[in-house]
TrEMBL record, chains A, B:
The keyword Magnesium applies. Keywords: ATP-binding, Glutathione biosynthesis, Ligase, Magnesium, Manganese, Metal-binding, Multifunctional enzyme, Nucleotide-binding. The keyword Zinc-finger does not apply. This is Glutathione biosynthesis bifunctional protein GshAB. Its cofactor is Mn(2+); Mg(2+). It comes from Vagococcus zengguangii. InterPro entries: ATP-grasp, ATP-grasp_PylC-type, Gln_synth/guanido_kin_cat_dom, Glu_cys_ligase, Glut_biosynth, Glut_cys_ligase, GshAB_ATP-grasp. It holds the Pfam family Glu_cys_ligase. Its EC number is 6.3.2.2, 6.3.2.3. Monomer.
Amino acid sequence: MQSIKDLIIQNNNQEWFKKLRIGLEKESQRVTLAGELAATDHPKTLGARKYHPNIQTDFSETQVELITPVFENEHDVVSYLGALHEVVLRSMKQEEMLWPLSMPPILPEKDEDIIIAKLEKFEDVLYRRYLAKSYGKRKQMVSGIHYNFEFNKQFIEKLFEEQSEYQTLSQFKTALYLKVSRNYLRYRWLITYLFGAAPISEAGYFSEDEEKPDEPVRSIRNSKFGYTNHDDVFVSYETLERYEQDIADLIEQGKLSEEKEFYSPVRLRGGKTMADLKNAGIQYIEIRNIDNNPFAPYGITEDQVEFLHIFLMYMLWLDNRTDNADELLKVGTQLNNEVALENPLNMTNYLTEGLGVIAGMRQMLDEINASANWYYLVDKAEELLNDTRKTIAAQMLTMFEEEQLTQHEFAVVYAKEYYDKAWEKIYQLEGFRDMELSTQIMIFDSLQRGVEVEVIDRSDQFIKLTFNGKVEYVKNANMTSKDNYVVPLMMANKIVTKKVLNEAGFRVPLGYEFQSLERARLIYPEIAKTGFVVKPKSTNYGLGISIFKEGASQEDYEEALAIAFKEDTDVLVEEFLPGTEYRFFVIDGKTQGVMLRVPANVMGDGQSTVEELVKKKNQDPLRGTHHRSPLELIQLGEIERLMLKEQGLTIHSILEEGQVAYLRENSNVSTGGDSIDMTDEISSHYKTIAEQAVLSLGAVICGIDLIIPDKEVNPFESKNAYGIIEANFNPAMHMHCFPYQGKGRRLTQNVLDLLYPESKVI
Amino acid sequence: MQSIKDLIIQNNNQEWFKKLRIGLEKESQRVTLAGELAATDHPKTLGARKYHPNIQTDFSETQVELITPVFENEHDVVSYLGALHEVVLRSMKQEEMLWPLSMPPILPEKDEDIIIAKLEKFEDVLYRRYLAKSYGKRKQMVSGIHYNFEFNKQFIEKLFEEQSEYQTLSQFKTALYLKVSRNYLRYRWLITYLFGAAPISEAGYFSEDEEKPDEPVRSIRNSKFGYTNHDDVFVSYETLERYEQDIADLIEQGKLSEEKEFYSPVRLRGGKTMADLKNAGIQYIEIRNIDNNPFAPYGITEDQVEFLHIFLMYMLWLDNRTDNADELLKVGTQLNNEVALENPLNMTNYLTEGLGVIAGMRQMLDEINASANWYYLVDKAEELLNDTRKTIAAQMLTMFEEEQLTQHEFAVVYAKEYYDKAWEKIYQLEGFRDMELSTQIMIFDSLQRGVEVEVIDRSDQFIKLTFNGKVEYVKNANMTSKDNYVVPLMMANKIVTKKVLNEAGFRVPLGYEFQSLERARLIYPEIAKTGFVVKPKSTNYGLGISIFKEGASQEDYEEALAIAFKEDTDVLVEEFLPGTEYRFFVIDGKTQGVMLRVPANVMGDGQSTVEELVKKKNQDPLRGTHHRSPLELIQLGEIERLMLKEQGLTIHSILEEGQVAYLRENSNVSTGGDSIDMTDEISSHYKTIAEQAVLSLGAVICGIDLIIPDKEVNPFESKNAYGIIEANFNPAMHMHCFPYQGKGRRLTQNVLDLLYPESKVI
């Protein structure tokens, strides 16, 4: 093979070389808060395992497997893994958590109490029974991380165009990944050294009569005592043909039941099945020797992922003989086993080779103009080589000793920490906290029920969902393909909305639109004695609005007009509808939530000042800023102080017990208002009206605001029992999911039911 | 009946009293440009008469009847009538126009050459045959205007609540409209005096042996020689019961064939049929004695409509005896006939009564705080009473004499004037010229094929269409219920659009999005030698964009980044795609138009300066401003002068013959660019690509921009034959309908076909 290094440098392909595509898989055991293996089934809320793309069970019913989609950078893949972690933790019983180690917790004494995953397909169950028999159930309880790695496709195409050795792109690609795999297998001991995190087995893991390691070691899992095939399984990585033939022969000989039983640290992948590999050549490789890192909340840190990336780049970069493939592999396996079984606190026997690899990596970084962070990661690896106490396994041992903890206790401490973190802000989702809350909740619900999620544009809250091959795009969690385009345009225009609702027979505040004060003046006699509102057509935040609840003098009316015309060229003069405003959230013809919004307020306790009461109320974990929490912090700015003043108060006033002070006139949650769920308190009559009104607008997802003077009145038997004042095509969802008071309504689930009825989890 | 006047004044109902609902119907004869009755059929482009709500034929195939919807003000109804006029004129053969008089043009000598309307329903034809036999075909060729009038419903409800005489609203309403009708019948001679416009009949209209008026008169049509029933038809307006009974009796006696043969100047209306009247009481009245005013382009002026409104208000206001209903009616008929047969140049015999009515009307205006315009209209009527030469009929006669014209010649002159006006700016539509051009064109096409149009919000270009009971809302002529909501949101986001198209396998300019200059700098090596574009993510008008067609130095790249980051926090660095940009307009899966847009330019003639050439090019009637014309005027502002400077030119430079000077870099039609239709020049391959790309976006109405380096290349056989650079969810339509060069593509018709396939006119 030509020097890849030269091909890259001479043709200026450094930037393409740096790109990657990566997907992670991570297993871990469900345990009780005490660290005992869970006796419960896989959570029902996670939907059916037969299709769930991201959350599966591996060998046992307790062994959760998380699978991320493929990403093009390290940050995104770890974030997504974090999200899956949170989804699983919050889907499990609240008395369960995830075991943070590769080595399993203390296992039940009897093998039959280790429950094989209850999968629907009987062949999947049969395979697991075979594994239990062939390797023992306990070995199968080990967990780890798989790292699916691919170079950028265009990078490979560019290299291919510039080389002359291979005829087809597929041949070239296969040769390239074989080289990486061989080199990785040869040097993988360094990864075991750096990231090995399985120093000790719990009692009962090895049987009495079994050969076992001299614990502590760097990684039982990566040693010959770990998750490996029997000794008589050897597969060559010299050529793809030999690799395939060897596996086929082993299956033929009954030494492997099928391809996936081949537990190599590097598996060649052509697609989903072995046949894909034959047809398409190697498309990517699966690195399988990463232990769960207990110090990382999700089992692996972004730095580890990035270091592995550089390491794999180096495995391509590194030129060496190719005529000794099988030999190299055997040397690699031997070195790895030795290093895996070293005491973590001792220096490795292969320091010199390790430092050589590091030096080579650094040289590569120099030649490809690498970022400072990559140098930092390589420096750090060197530091770990020189100071073995800084490796993960050694740090674990040090901690056991310093904190006087058993490994079990240590694992419980960390598991609990990650568990607490997952339950802390249950309305947010790791990896997506920069997105709007409603979108975070929808992503959570999607991941939970097995709908694939891809963020198309973060700042635009644009996500792509896929279920059973069907793609749906969603923006702001409430804008979907189910609504037709003209409906939101209609709702964006107050005049149009009113006209349509009015024509359909719903009560709306009637009124006029004016472009001139002169014309507006003329209608005074008509409204003089009725309640009315003067407002600019387009503004939304109360600016320029005057409300006359029981008529007004000609002078007051004209002043109100003047104020409104300052804000807009179009002014509306509308009937005033007295009553309480409720938001009805209608999805697919059904009212899924009714919300009462109360302006920002505090209630006195007889001793605290308004300022103190606000501070206290703001401690509610549901309150935050910028729509990243279901409620917003109450402010004490100019508007709030003015509002207090109108009530004869200041921020230093002490309120009597039960005395309520309002800090805002408007009831928006975005200005600190309270959200109170009223779904069960509002009669079905009003829900029917809301549903019919939404239907008449043609909307599928809609927040519609009704003014109701007395909710006990039957609107079908009484005139003017309600009025519709607005229909919203981008209604906030998070406040319904996590209200200040009352029951939460998971509207995001309703939207998902609408988009994918077949994904509904009962 | 209680005094209506008192009920209005005492309860402050003046403003409600002033409101009205009005619909107009107007008949006229199709004639050749020489003024001969047309021998052609009703235009096929107007769709089927069996459902057309606005454009019908009355008695003969040549007698077009225009029917407006109901409006709440005079301006809108006249505007709409104007629109219907333009639609009909532009749908007729270009050698035909509309006769502007109530009296028909010279009719064919033989009765059989007057063709009865070719209607689908045989009973409609039979009825017309009966009329021809009963009244003679010639009488049925008279045209006129019907004025459907209704008071505001809330006004009537308010009055009803305040009176004590009637038990039910329906009874009250019926009494109220009966009063108006009786008074109108009594005083209608004043309308005949003011608006009579049928002084002379053409030769052959009356047969030799027939009794005929002593011409000229004020209105043959409104006299006993006009369009009236036979003498033995008398119907009482005393009560609704007597009205119904009398008509029923006349039908029973064979004196009327059916209710609609009752040619009263006031017809009571309860709905569509006589039965509705019985069930619902009177809902509105139809005033039928208005002659076509030849001085008004559409047969009636807004002032006339408004005067009739005030006159009808006065007919309600006016208190009088109710025990002499039949007598009043007979007096009214007699007075009207007398006035109708007066010589228009002579003073009327009933001046005193007329002045009395005027005085009463003025008093009413005083009591209801009327606007200045209403006083003006009443003053004007008084002026006409005092000076008979100012009446319409008299003005016609004066003109015949002064200009030495026959009535026929006079009518041709005016018909031609209105005809010319209708053909002048064929891309605009009377009554909707304030709306965007695409919406005007769509309204035209809708009215033409019989789709009902209601403007819901003018400034928002929001219209409601109804066909066969099915409602569709349309905004900007291209936003409809056929597109789903998430698709335009997708297209509004360039990143999302590119991702989706790229994943679907279409070529798009690949690239990156950056939030920081530092990160953007790093990719320089990757793009150094390729063509690329640096641009702010969100701006649209070329601001902050740098194009490097063949790579750039590191310095230039960084400068371009700095410029782009000044415009936006997100900057895109994208592959540059060389070639010509074409807009493909895809509707419902089919490319309906392909457009090449060329930047504003002029071509020299060897003697004119750039400034002169621009002036000349701007004289094209297709050029205008503010999107009210298919092309925009070319400006000579700072940008254009700078652009000239770059070509070594000023506005005073004389261009050689054939020399082209560009005045803009961007090709937008909105900055004076030329639109060139290329639909027939572009191969179906590219159309297929555009259609498939639009399909992959899920869009139904979409303008998609392809860069094509060489349109002769087959994109299915060549790599990089095209690139998609944008998909537009609000693509301009008018430029396709009326291009600068090439064939017009009536995209609005395609949208209507999509919304209402069953309305399609072949």
